[in-house]
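Deliverable D2.4 — example input (structure tokens):
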């Protein structure tokens, strides 16, 4: 039996190493000296940043549910009486008064996402210098490794966080028996107490603050309840040390390991979080029960067995997609931080782009798994008690961007936490709709949310001078997030999901908007009032205004959702009356406008300034992630969007640049998309204080720098690279729609197109060589290529009519007005060939050049 297991293990390791790609490692020649050099691990629940120190190893820990505060709706009953005054001011053109009045409708800030603690290993024999230091994060198996030699002994530490085991597992080995000597400690930046519960078991019990301030000017900054049983989440970390050889004993609030041959450390943790609508302090779960139960399950299992289960689970998601943009033996010899520093000097680094791409997918698998909370501004990784922007859900771009890669990079399951969150937002958002606006149908979400599914507008009521209507006045997040449900359906064809989960939520978001929309007496169109274009101000007659009406983003979001719902009602054959209502409202929505410079108008009137470099370009929602503006169906609107992009420029914050990659990809401008993507590889030194809006880039650990660290840029760039290789938003599957010169030869396997098609391709000389398309749901497959192609298995026909596949949905042609035809930008010209072929569910089709 033992022999068989050994043989199986051997075969497994052969197989694992055969699949292991040496280019998929982030590696360094020195330990992390600062957080942005440490390497992230995660299983959706527990996050860990691995520092890899020789004398002191630090694993900085997070739990995805550990936030400050308690459920606080923050709804503002002033709303219904103030709203008519705001609207009147806007209609009169007094935008300044409108903004001032809106402040009376604001509510509190969101809760803050908090750090859990640190597991520290202090080595007693680490004074002498180490040699041959190496640390990495291997994306092939989601394991971080540290190796070094000291006094002739080779030391190795491996660590992973396991989704199936809900635990972090560390394995320490040495080339010489009895060489492992270290102390184990647990601490936290929050209130905590650590004790040794047994000779080999440490337990940290902690309590989170009941309130953490948003601004340094607030009188109370980090406020704890004096009563340990009072408000504020509690949490527990358990650490068990299992040694082979030597001794483990408790030493005060630490454990001491001496003369061990090898050691396995098991870590489990839990919080008292007991649902978005219950106080975790007063009605919380006992975190000890969960931490102990998980410890009980995991700590009897040998390291290799846990590792196998972890790798199998991780690879079941990660291995679905493979990207190859060419190899570069020289660049692989450089540690990751050096590659980043020299990226532009070396004229780019395709394997680094591939690594960055897969790192985005890795982060999604590590941070967003079924049952976990959705990823916040920092995913699940945060070391601050007062993190930038509270590490919250910022819903006017950041939360959505976090999920742009979920479907097209074949990680559909990882989208689930967002959908579960939407259900909670719909509950709270119905109350906000009623209290703040006296709207009794549907639900609404504003610009920030948190663990407690906050839906009311932030801004700090009236007390906060900095609480600005240009972002707080935005009841649109429910609409935007609901479009993710529709996209999930288009990518998966899961009609049960559409019927049971997506449709009711999408309908609720639309019901609110049907009542929020109001008729503009001057134009007769349905508009939003008040309205902002998130975070930007409109400049008019030398003055800046925050609030007006019918911003292009509002109208595009509503149009996108209404269109999706109209289509859904037909697919599901339900709700015809509601559908008619939507059709009627959609026809009256204030349309797009192409302004005097040939730009897509951001505002209700042609107030856009070519000199405006604001990082938000929300008016381009319809181009991406929306699908209303396409090069083929609406070339003039696409050209206008291009003009808007040119005005704003390329360099901006991390997430803004990632969005621009996606936009330029949708415009099929490969070189511009690639140029901005390359800008994202600007090395940002985490030791230097940088201006927040001074231009984004990448930290040594490949985390996106807004700056500071914000994970949206990582996710947005991975989505954008996919968008350069494959698009499917306009009723066709475009193969290689925006392939830059820098990627003349390459291959991609397993990315997804709407219609539940899985696509693999390779190309040389910038032209498609071969594609295979797996049909997950059957139905017509319409592909668009830049060279003539054929389908090996059958005879395809030239596409003529609209695509009969309901998942290959085209948004049609939204109406628009234009003031100056002469100014319209030209679009890159691509010759295109579009063919149709019927597919059978479960079959694969081969596409070759003709
Ligand atoms: C919005 C953006 C900022 C930042 C913050 C979290 O306020 O405008 O750039 O991303 O969210």
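Example output (designed residues):
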């Amino acid at each position: 039996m033992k022999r068989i297991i050994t043989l199986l293990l051997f075969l497994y390791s052969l197989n694992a190493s055969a699949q292991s790609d040496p280019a998929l490692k982030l590696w360094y020649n020195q330990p992390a000296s600062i957080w942005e050099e440490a390497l992230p691990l995660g299983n959706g629940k527990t996050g860990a940043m691995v520092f890899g120190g020789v004398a002191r190893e630090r694993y900085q820990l997070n739990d995805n549910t550990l936030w400050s505060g308690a459920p606080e709706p923050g709804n503002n009953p002033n709303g219904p009486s103030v709203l008519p005054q705001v609207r009147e001011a806007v209609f009169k053109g007094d935008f300044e008064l409108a903004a001032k009045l809106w402040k009376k409708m604001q509510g509190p800030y969101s809760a803050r996402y908090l750090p859990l603690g640190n597991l520290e290993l202090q080595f007693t024999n680490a004074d002498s210098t180490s040699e041959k230091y190496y640390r990495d994060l291997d994306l092939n198996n989601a394991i971080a490794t540290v190796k070094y030699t000291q006094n002739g002994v080779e030391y190795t530490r491996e660590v992973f966080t396991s989704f199936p085991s809900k635990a972090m597992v560390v394995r320490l080995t040495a080339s010489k028996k009895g060489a492992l000597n270290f102390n184990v400690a647990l601490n936290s930046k929050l209130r905590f107490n650590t004790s040794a519960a047994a000779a080999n078991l440490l337990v940290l019990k902690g309590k989170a603050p009941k309130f953490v301030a948003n601004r340094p000017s607030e009188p109370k900054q980090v406020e704890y309840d004096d009563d340990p049983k009072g408000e504020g989440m509690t949490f527990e970390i358990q650490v068990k040390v299992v040694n082979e050889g030597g001794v483990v004993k408790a030493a005060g609030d630490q454990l001491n390991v001496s003369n061990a041959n090898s050691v396995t450390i098991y870590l489990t943790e839990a919080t008292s979080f007991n649902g978005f609508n219950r106080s975790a302090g007063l009605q919380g779960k006992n975190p000890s029960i969960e931490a102990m139960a998980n410890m009980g399950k995991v700590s009897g299992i040998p390291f290799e067995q846990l590792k196998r289960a972890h790798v199998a689970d991780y690879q079941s998601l990660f291995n679905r997609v493979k990207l190859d943009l060419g190899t570069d033996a020289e660049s692989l010899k450089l540690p990751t931080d050096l590659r980043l520093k020299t990226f532009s000097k070396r004229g780019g680094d395709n394997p680094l782009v591939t690594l960055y791409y897969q790192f985005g997918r890795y982060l999604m698998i590590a941070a967003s798994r079924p049952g976990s909370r959705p990823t916040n501004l920092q995913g699940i990784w945060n070391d601050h008690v007062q993190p930038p922007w509270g590490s919250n859900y910022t819903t006017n771009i950041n939360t959505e961007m976090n999920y742009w890669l979920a479907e097209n990079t074949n990680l559909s399951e990882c989208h689930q936490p967002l959908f579960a969150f939407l259900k909670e937002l719909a509950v709270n958002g119905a109350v906000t709709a009623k209290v703040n606006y006296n709207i009794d149908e549907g639900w609404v979400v504003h610009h920030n949310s948190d663990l407690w599914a906050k839906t009311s507008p932030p801004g700090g009521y009236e007390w906060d001078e900095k609480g600005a209507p240009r972002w707080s006045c935005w009841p649109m997040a429910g609409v935007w997030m609901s479009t993710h449900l529709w996209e999930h359906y288009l990518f998966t064809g899961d009609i049960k999901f559409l019927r049971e989960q997506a449709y009711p939520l999408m309908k609720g978001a639309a019901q609110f908007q049907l009542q929020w929309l109001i008729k503009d007496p001057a134009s007769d169109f349905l508009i939003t009032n008040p309205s902002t274009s998130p975070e930007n101000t409109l400049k008019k007659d030398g003055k800046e205004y925050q609030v007006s009406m019918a911003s292009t983003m509002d109208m595009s979001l509503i149009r996108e959702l209404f269109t999706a719902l109209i289509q859904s009602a037909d697919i599901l054959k339900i709700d015809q009356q509601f559908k008619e209502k939507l059709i009627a409202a959609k026809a009256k929505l204030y349309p797009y406008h192409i302004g005097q410079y040939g730009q897509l108008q951001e505002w209700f009137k042609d107030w856009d300034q070519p000199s405006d470099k604001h990082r938000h370009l929300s008016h381009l929602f319809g181009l991406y992630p929306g699908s209303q503006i396409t090069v083929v169906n609406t070339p003039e609107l696409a050209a206008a969007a291009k003009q808007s992009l040119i005005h704003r420029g390329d360099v901006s914050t991390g997430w803004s640049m990632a969005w621009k990659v996606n936009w330029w990809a949708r415009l099929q401008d490969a070189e511009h998309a690639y140029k901005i993507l390359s800008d994202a590889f600007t090395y940002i030194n985490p030791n230097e204080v940088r201006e927040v809006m001074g231009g984004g880039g990448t930290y040594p650990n490949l985390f996106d720098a807004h700056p500071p660290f914000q994970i949206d840029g990582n996710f947005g760039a991975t989505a954008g690279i996919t968008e350069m290789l494959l698009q499917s938003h306009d009723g066709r599957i475009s193969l290689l729609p925006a392939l830059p010169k820098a990627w003349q030869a390459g291959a991609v396997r397993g990315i997804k197109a709407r219609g539940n098609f899985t696509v693999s391709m390779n190309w040389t000389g910038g032209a498609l060589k071969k594609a295979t398309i797996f049909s997950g749901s059957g139905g017509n497959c319409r592909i668009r290529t830049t060279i003539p192609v054929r389908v090996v298995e059958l005879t395809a026909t030239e596409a003529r009519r609209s695509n009969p596949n309901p998942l290959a949905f085209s948004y049609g042609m939204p109406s628009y007005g234009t003031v100056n035809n002469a100014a319209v930008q030209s679009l890159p010209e691509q010759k295109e060939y579009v063919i149709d072929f019927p597919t059978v569910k479960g079959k694969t089709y081969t596409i070759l050049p003709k």
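Residues 407 and 488 are 7 Å apart (CA to CA).
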